[in-house]
C-alpha cells in the first residue's frame, strides 16, 4: 500500500491539483482524500478507486501467485498443524521421527488435502 500512496501523491503533484480540488472533483471529503493519499489501506476501496481514477490511474489486483500456489501453501500450513497435532497425540516425537520423515508426512498430508475439494484447504 505504501507504493500506491506514493504513486497517488506523485501523480497529484504532477497534475498540480490540491487536496481541496481533488476532494471537490471526486465528491469526497478533504479528510477522505487525505486518508487515501497518506494510507490507502485505511481507506475504502471505493475512495481509493475514486481518487486514483480522477488522477488518471487504475488500481488493479495483479496475480502474484497462481491459485494452485496459494492453495498449496495453505495446504502445507494446514498439514503442518495436523501432523503436529497427531505427533503430539501419538507420541511420535518419542519414537525418533527425524526431520526427513516429518517433512514427508507433511508433504503427504498436503497432497491428500489438495486431492480433495478445494474447500478442504480452508476448513
What would a concise description of this structure say?
The protein has 123 residues and is mostly helical. Helix content is 70%, strand content 0%.
Structure description:
70% of the residues lie in helices and 0% in strands. The protein is mainly alpha-helical and 123 residues long. Helix 2 (19-26) crosses helix 3 and helix 5 (67-90) crosses helix 6 (99-115). The mean pLDDT is 88. It contains 7 helices and no strands. The protein has 2 domains: 2-54, 434 Repressor (Amino-terminal Domain); 67-122, no CATH class.
Architecture blueprint of SSEs:
Elements: H1 2-15, H2 19-26, H3 30-38, H4 45-54, H5 67-90, H6 99-115, H7 119-122
Helix pairs in contact: 2-3, 5-6
Mean pLDDT: 88
How many β-strand runs?
Answer: 0
What is the overall shape?
rod-shaped
Q: Counting H and I runs of at least 4 residues, what is the number of helices? A: 7
Q: How many domains make up the 3D coordinates?
A: 2
Distance between the termini: 29 Å
Encode the helix/strand succession as letters. Answer: HHHHHHH
Low-confidence stretches: none
Q: Sheet with the most strands?
A: none
Structural class: mainly alpha
Q: Mind telling me the C-alpha Rg? A: 24 Å
Helix content range of the residues, please?
55-70%
Query: Which range does the strand content fall in?
Result: under 5%
Amino acid at each position: 500500500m505504501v507504493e500506491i500512496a506514493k504513486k497517488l501523491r506523485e501523480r497529484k503533484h504532477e497534475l498540480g491539483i490540491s487536496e481541496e480540488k481533488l476532494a471537490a472533483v471526486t465528491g469526497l471529503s478533504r479528510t477522505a482524500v487525505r486518508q487515501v493519499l497518506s494510507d490507502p489501506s485505511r481507506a475504502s476501496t471505493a475512495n481509493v478507486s475514486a481518487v486514483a481514477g480522477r488522477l488518471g490511474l487504475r488500481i488493479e489486483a495483479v496475480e502474484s501467485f497462481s491459485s494452485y500456489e496459494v492453495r498449496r501453501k495453505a495446504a502445507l500450513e494446514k498439514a503442518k498443524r495436523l501432523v503436529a497435532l497427531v505427533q503430539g497425540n501419538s507420541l511420535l516425537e518419542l519414537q525418533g521421527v527425524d526431520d526427513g520423515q516429518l517433512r514427508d508426512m507433511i508433504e503427504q498430508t498436503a497432497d491428500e488435502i489438495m486431492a480433495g475439494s478445494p474447500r478442504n484447504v480452508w476448513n
